[in-house]
Amino acid sequence: MARTARPAAPKRTPAPSAAATPHYVLRLYITGTTPASTRALMNIKRLCETHLRGRYELEVVDIYQRPSLLEGEQIIAAPTLIKQLPLPLRRMVGDMSNTERVLLGLDLRER
Q: Given 70, 85, 88, 98, which is the most exposed site by the fewest CB atoms within 10 A?
């Protein structure tokens, strides 16, 4: 009796592990609604939605409203973005308009 071959089951691509898709914890320090602060907020939100959608937390701290946080984080300029997780901790200063530099700082691009 002849056997008919069954089609091979499609190969399944394993779901990315938690290590492959880390969750990012970011804190952006701004100074009110200055042009640089507004640009930094818009730029980092756009970048996060493009490259980190669904796997980031972004806390925005207005140093005029919460100056006590400055000393603990050693903020000397604003806007400043701090990548708290995944480690290593990174700091970036400016309006976050240089997308490649920010992606490098967030370890989303190879050096």
A: 88
How many CB atoms within 10 Å of residue 85?
Answer: 13
Distance CA 97, CA 40 (A): 7
CB-CB contact of 60 with 30 (8 Å):
yes
- How many structural domains are present in the chain? 1
What is the domain-level CATH number for residue 88?
3.40.30.10
Task: Tell me which of 47 and 19 has the higher pLDDT.
Answer: 47
82 near 73, Cβ under 8 Å? yes
Does a structural domain hold residue 1?
no
Residue 12 lies in a domain: no
pTM of the full predicted structure?
0.79
Whole-number Å distance between alpha carbons of 89 and 50: 21
pLDDT per residue as tens digits for the range 32-90: 999 999 999 999 999 999 999 999 999 999 999 998 887 788 888 999 999 999 999 99
The whole-angstrom separation of Cα 106 and Cα 89 is: 9
Domain that holds residue 56: 24-105
